[in-house]
Amino acid sequence: MTDLYGFRAGEIQAHRARLERLFSRPMEIHESSYVLEEEYYLLNLPGGERLKLQQNHDAAEGDWAEDDFKEMAVLLFVEARDRAEELRRMLIPGVEGIEFLQRELCTSDRRFLRIRSVGGRDTVVLEKDLADRDLAVRHP
Predict the structure, then answer these.
(1) What's the predicted TM-score (pTM) here?
(2) For the purposes of burial, counting CB atoms within 10 Å of the CB of 89, is it exposed (0-12), middle (13-18) or buried (19 or more)?
């Protein structure tokens, strides 16, 4: 399961510091040719969850990491299995400026779901049978 959060303001170092305070552990800088701006910050939590903080837009290349969320300057990807809701309850009140954007998950009955926050409510916007038998796109 992967949750996506965003920050409208682009001060990645300030967001990094807030996350480090919340979790009482440092985020490690990484370089990648696949990630915009070539740098991202990674935090591995003791329960196996991973948090990745990165810029959404690469001005030099003109590319967006998440086209659907161009209003977000900085993105936080949270990979969590059992603790996604717990982490969400920690992040929203605990990190200034953070917004929940979407959750992607695979259910036990082999369905892929994309859930987005629409008007403050979680709404399924994409549902797909992983065997590709059907595809349903829902418009909020």
Answers:
(1) 0.85
(2) exposed
**Coil, helix or strand at residue 105:** strand
pLDDT tens for each residue of 4-31: 999 998 789 999 999 999 999 999 998 7
Q: What is the DSSP string of 59-103?
A: TTTTEES-GGGTT-SEEEEEE-SS-HHHHHHHHHHHSTTEEEEEE
Whether the CB-CB separation of 77 and 6 falls below 8 Å is answered with no
70: nearest Cα among 55, 90, 49, 53: 55
d(CA 94, CA 110): 33
Please name each of the domains of the chain with its CATH number: 2-101 (3.30.310), 107-140 (no CATH)
Longest dimension (CA), the chain: 45
